[in-house]
């Protein structure tokens, strides 16, 4: 296995080293292990998903889900024994790959839900909220955390993890797995890269590295990804939100006047760019004094709820407990409650709010779509409203509607197309 170099992930280009020699020896040892159901070796049977070598430690991911428990255990034990018998191997781990774990899928598309965490200003606790939220989610479902803050990636230090990032045998960067007592979290960050020096990553190089990690990371989690964005609403943030279909953004702010003003503007900007705002986390608004026991408001005045056009999902006090390293599945109630609210908001953020009588052609084959649109539109009386829900951008339908009425498409009044979810559009028009 090679350490992952963000500028060159082609394993063919990496220097052969002792790790790759060890890998070869592991491979030939594994060839002696047979598939219990067919008389072929485990490679021919497609049972070896990947082999990762880290120093003298070897991890094999085995696709054994087709076997019953007894045979799966038998074949995994035989693989582990074969690897262990290779001289120079000091640790052998064989992990089953389950079909529901998302193994094999790369990039952020592997996740059902992607939640971005943003802030208008730096230092307001965005990464603290991202890590706490991701750790709380990991207690409930397979979750990942992507630190996209290229110029100040502090997720690794908040979680107390280090790189380097390794690649699987296809060159896909592997996330670092952070373990809690009974949950784990996949973590990827430019701050984990061995070549590190993220502050030196500027412009195109930083963007390329990030794009590659977005597209290629071989996550093992597949349910929810938390994306820790850089502070502000600059290029990296907006490009990222364009490149990745996020389900929504959580905005972190302090209740300080100018922070609220900037946050209100960011919320508007996200909405203008078609990104649903799931809500705001108001951080460090009060302080519970350990000496007198009283709670002090640090920023008295108008509340965040009054200033922001967004649901306040959580208000976190200034507390040393938020400076501790969170563990996946063991974060305390504040982040657990936040995780619940965020999941609920994400589930409904993209609801297609279409009129009851809208024609829904999602999933129809292309010929059937045209037929159904023609049927419905021609049956309308002049001046009646037409609404269509589609899983493709229906802008070209304007021409088709024009053809149906022998009119110039420009004469279709009230024609509008809105993208309501990453995959759903609503078209409305009035029959001429
Ligand atoms: N509620 C809180 N109570 C106490 N300390 C906090 C709280 N929230 C954040 N902090 C501390 O504030 C510091 C900044 O937090 P964090 O790194 O999460 O901010 P950020 O907005 O991500 O910063 P950056 O702009 O650098 O990305 C950290 O030391 C963190 O431990």
From TrEMBL:
The domain of life is: Archaea
Molecular-function annotations in GO: 4 iron, 4 sulfur cluster binding; ATP binding; ATP hydrolysis activity; ATP-dependent FeS chaperone activity; metal ion binding
Its assembly, as annotated, is:
Homodimer.
Name by which UniProt lists this protein: Iron-sulfur cluster carrier protein
KW Protease (keyword) present: no
Taking the record's annotation, the residue ranges forming a coiled coil are none
Region spans: Disordered? 1-26
All copies of the DUF2249 domain together span 359-431
Q: Which UniProt keywords apply?
A: ATP-binding, Hydrolase, Iron, Iron-sulfur, Metal-binding, Nucleotide-binding
Query: What Pfam family is a match for this entry?
Result: FeS_assembly_P
Q: Which family does it belong to?
A: Belongs to the Mrp/NBP35 ATP-binding proteins family.
Ligand binding (ATP)? 120-127
Q: Which organism is it from?
A: Haloferax massiliensis
Cited InterPro entries: DUF2249, FSCA_dom_sf, MIP18-like, Mrp/NBP35_ATP-bd, NUBPL-like, P-loop_NTPase, YlxH/NBP35
Which PANTHER family does this UniProt record tie to the protein?
IRON-SULFUR PROTEIN NUBPL (PTHR42961:SF2)
MIP18 family-like domain ranges (all copies): 23-94
Q: Which GO terms describe its biological process?
A: iron-sulfur cluster assembly
Free-text function comment from the UniProt entry: Binds and transfers iron-sulfur (Fe-S) clusters to target apoproteins. Can hydrolyze ATP.
């Amino acid at each position: 296995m090679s350490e992952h170099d963000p500028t060159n992930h082609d394993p063919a280009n990496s220097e052969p080293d002792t790790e790759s020699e060890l890998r070869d020896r592991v491979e030939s040892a594994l060839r002696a292990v047979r598939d219990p159901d067919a008389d072929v070796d485990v490679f021919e049977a497609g049972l070896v998903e990947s082999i990762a070598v880290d120093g003298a430690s070897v991890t094999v991911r085995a696709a054994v889900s087709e076997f019953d428990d007894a045979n799966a255990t038998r074949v995994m034990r035989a693989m582990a024994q074969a690897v262990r018998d290779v001289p120079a191997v000091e640790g052998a781990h064989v992990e089953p790959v389950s079909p529901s774990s998302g193994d094999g899928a790369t990039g952020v598309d592997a996740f059902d839900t992607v939640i971005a965490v943003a802030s208008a200003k730096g230092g307001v606790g965005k990464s603290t909220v991202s890590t706490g939220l991701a750790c709380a989610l990991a207690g409930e479902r397979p979750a990942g955390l992507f630190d996209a803050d290229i110029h100040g990636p502090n997720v690794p230090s908040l979680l107390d993890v280090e790189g380097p990032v390794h690649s699987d045998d296809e060159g896909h960067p592997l996330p670092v797995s952070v373990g809690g007592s009974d949950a784990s979290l996949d973590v990827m960050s430019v701050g984990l890269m061995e070549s590190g020096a993220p502050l030196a990553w500027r412009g195109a190089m930083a963007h390329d590295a990030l794009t590659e990690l977005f597209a290629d990371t071989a996550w093992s989690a597949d349910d929810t990804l938390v994306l820790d964005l850089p502070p502000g609403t600059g290029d990296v943030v907006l490009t990222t939100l364009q490149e990745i279909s996020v389900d929504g953004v959580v905005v972190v702010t302090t209740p300080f006047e100018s922070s609220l003003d900037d946050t209100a503007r960011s919320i508007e900007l996200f909405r203008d760019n078609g990104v649903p705002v799931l809500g705001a986390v108001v951080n460090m608004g009060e302080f519970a004094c350990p000496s007198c026991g009283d709670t002090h408001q640090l920023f008295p005045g108008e509340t965040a709820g009054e200033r922001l056009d967004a649901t306040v999902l959580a208000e976190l006090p200034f507390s040393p407990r938020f400076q501790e390293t969170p563990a996946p599945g063991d974060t305390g109630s504040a982040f657990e409650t936040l995780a619940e609210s965020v999941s609920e908001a994400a589930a409904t953020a993209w609801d297609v709010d279409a009129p009851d009588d809208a024609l829904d052609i999602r999933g129809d084959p292309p010929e059937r779509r045209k037929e159904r649109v023609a049927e419905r539109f021609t049956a309308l009386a002049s001046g009646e409203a037409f609404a269509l829900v589609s899983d493709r951008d229906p802008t070209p339908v304007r021409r088709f509607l024009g053809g149906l009425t022998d009119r110039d498409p420009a004469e279709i009044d009230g024609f509008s197309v809105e993208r309501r979810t990453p995959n759903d559009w609503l078209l409305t028009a009035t029959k001429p």
